[in-house]
Amino acid sequence: MTQYLVAVDGGQTSTKALLAARDGAVLGYGVGGPCDRFAAPGGPERNRAALAGAIHAAYTAAGLSPGPVAAVGVGLTGFHTGGPELPQIEAIVRAVVTPDTVAAVGDYVSNLLGASSGQPGVVIVAGGGAIAYGVTPDGREATAGGAGYLLADEGSAYAIGHQALRAAMRAGDGRDDSTALLDAVPAAYGLSSVRELPDLVYRADFTRDRIATLAPIVTRAAEAGDAVARRILATAGTELARTTLACIRQLVAPGAAVAVYPTGGVFTAGALLTEPFRAALHAGWPAATIQPAAFLPVVGALIVAARAAGIAVDAAWLARVGATLPPAAR
User: Fold this and answer.
1) Using an 8 Å Cβ cutoff, are 214 and 229 in contact?
2) For the domain 4-117+294-329, what is the CATH superfamily, name and number?
3) What is the arithmetic mean of pLDDT over 133-139?
């Protein structure tokens, strides 16, 4: 019997991988570059490098060489379970390891599985993008948001960064309130003035993940008291609550309790974002309870791999995972 499991969480910021034994003991953890939708320019090449790089890094950390595995579980940004990109995902994985089976899901699925330890509930994922996903005890599923930066993703790091860019430009023109972002945004790109921003952001090699990197700049300005930055974070929190509520309403009877798991780097902005999120969520669904995530999404991908290999994901198995996770994967 093949002894190993591989899990990969491919996000818009970075890609994480775990190598584990069948009993849940984690042997290695690795990190690769960011993933993207396969349909995006350069998406297939970017995803190949990110997934393969993370898997190799996990094996290196374990002191092992890639070989046969029982199953690989992949949670991938911009992918929907059973989507047409599945053969490409399988080909990328099989070029690195030899799995008995490959199971791929959208990263929102692995987010919920990790956050809830495999239990039903609703997750709101706010990283480079933003999406809500929920599943009921009887297996019904729903999503809201997640349509990408042009159509949705309100409250995401990209949306926060985009609002920061616009606020800086408007302040520079005198069209809107003065803000610390006027200096902080161009400085984040090594520029001396907002007047230099158009030449940078319209370059062909300027990718949207560089806009998302402005989110921490907004948080720092907001924490220092900047009113414009505070409005951007409050708006993001409210929009994330609206996306969550849209998902809840598709699944849960009015007034029924539901567990909500906020995940993703945007929520590290702290109370200036999370309090507007909490207030808007409870105003729209008083019976919602906000729960901390039990595990990171890469553990959700490990649950996907274990289930694909026919392994029972019970409390003992999850406890072994938790006890052997390296600090970086907690």
Assistant:
1) no
2) ATPase, nucleotide binding domain (3.30.420.40)
3) 96
Q: How far apart are CA 220 and CA 151, in angstroms?
A: 27
pTM (2 d.p.): 0.91
Which CATH superfamily hosts domain 126-290? ATPase, nucleotide binding domain (3.30.420.40)
Residue at token pair 């990190």 = 31
Q: Where are the domains of the chain?
A: 4-117+294-329, 126-290
Count other Cβ atoms within 10 Å, centred on residue 41.
11
Average pLDDT over residues 160-182: 96
pLDDT band at 1 (very low <50, low <70, confident <90, very high): low
Mean pLDDT of the region 75-89:
91
Task: Copy the structure tokens of residue 57.
Answer: 């890094």
Tokens of 153: 């993703």
Chain center to CA of 295: 13
Phi–psi pair at 131, nearest 5 degrees: -155, 145
* 4-117+294-329 and 126-290 share one fold: yes
